[in-house]
């Protein structure tokens, strides 16, 4: 009798809300993380528990590991005075990049946004208000992304926006699926370090070592434009990567079959 009651309670918990089990699983929250590259070895997400979700939703973590190509990406949640020097370096070195911007950035820095577009860089969607998208509805996700796309088009004249970086790297099967149906490729990363804390900067050499030590074929490099260290080290990072035989490519040059974890 007691066993039957327990079973009944479990069934009620699983199904009593009217939410299918598959739906509940689709809303499991994941925080993107990876096993870092060491000595040129490939990074991995095999032990993170979400590789199948990344794969089936066509998200980018790593490009073709047989090609010595690098993809440079920046997150621009707000401006800290270093984006212009970063753009100067990219222009001087003839390196393409993508800048993932928020609504705050678009409103606050329209001239820098125009410059990114004018100098041939991609502009990606980082959401309007930087929410944890696993906590908001499909309709709210659509609104967050559409506001960024529309506002960027008004400032730059560019209507194309195909790449999304989930705020804080937080995602679920549902958010990847919904954003993919809206025409976005979710872009994660395979090179990163703690660079976003403006009160914990350690100098250009520190940033250089943190990035260069993780370089590997097909790397998607995440940098935050608020970092003084990144701005100071970027030129040297590019030079060393090229010395090692790497080429910098735009995400638009990454063939679909290359985007493989």
Task: Give structural notes.
The protein is α/β, with parallel strands linked by helices and 261 residues long. The chain contains 10 helices and 9 strands. The protein has helices spanning 2-15, 21-26, 51-56, 83-93, 103-108, 110-118, 138-156, 173-181, 204-212, 228-243, and strands at 30-31, 69-76, 98-101, 122-125, 163-164, 170-171, 185-186, 219-224, 247-249. Helix 4 (83-93) packs parallel to helix 10 and helix 9 crosses helix 10 (228-243). It is globular and about 45 Å long. Residues 1-23 and 257-261 have low confidence and may be disordered. Strands 2, 3, 4, 8 and 9 form a 5-stranded parallel β-sheet that branches. A two-stranded antiparallel sheet has the order 1-6. It has a two-stranded parallel sheet with strand order 5-7.
Q: How would you summarize what this structure contains?
A:
This protein has ten helices and nine strands. With about 260 residues, the protein is α/β, with parallel strands linked by helices.
């Amino acid at each position: 009798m007691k066993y039957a009651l327990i079973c009944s309670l479990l069934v009620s918990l699983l199904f009593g809300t009217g939410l299918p089990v598959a739906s509940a699983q689709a809303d499991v929250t994941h925080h993107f993380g990876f096993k870092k590259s060491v000595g040129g070895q490939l990074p991995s997400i095999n032990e993170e528990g979400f590789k199948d979700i990344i794969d089936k939703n066509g998200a980018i973590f790593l490009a073709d590991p047989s090609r010595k190509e690098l993809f440079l990406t920046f997150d621009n949640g707000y401006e800290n005075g270093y984006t212009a020097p970063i753009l100067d370096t990219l222009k001087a070195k003839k390196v393409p990049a993508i800048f993932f911007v928020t609504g705050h950035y678009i409103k606050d820095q329209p001239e820098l946004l125009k410059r990114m577009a004018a100098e041939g860089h991609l502009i990606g969607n980082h959401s309007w208000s930087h929410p944890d998208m696993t906590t908001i509805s499909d309709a709210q996700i659509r609104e967050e992304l559409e506001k960024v796309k529309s506002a960027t088009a008004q400032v730059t004249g560019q209507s194309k926006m195909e790449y999304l970086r989930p705020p804080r790297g937080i995602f679920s099967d549902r958010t990847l699926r919904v954003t993919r149906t809206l025409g976005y490729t979710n872009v994660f990363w395979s090179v990163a370090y703690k660079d976003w804390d403006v009160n914990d900067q350690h100098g250009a050499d520190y940033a250089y070592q943190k990035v260069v030590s993780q370089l590997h074929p097909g790397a998607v490099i995440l940098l935050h434009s608020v970092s003084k260290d990144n701005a100071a080290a970027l030129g040297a990072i590019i030079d060393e990567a090229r010395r090692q035989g790497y080429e910098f490519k735009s995400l638009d040059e990454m063939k679909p079959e290359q985007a493989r974890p």
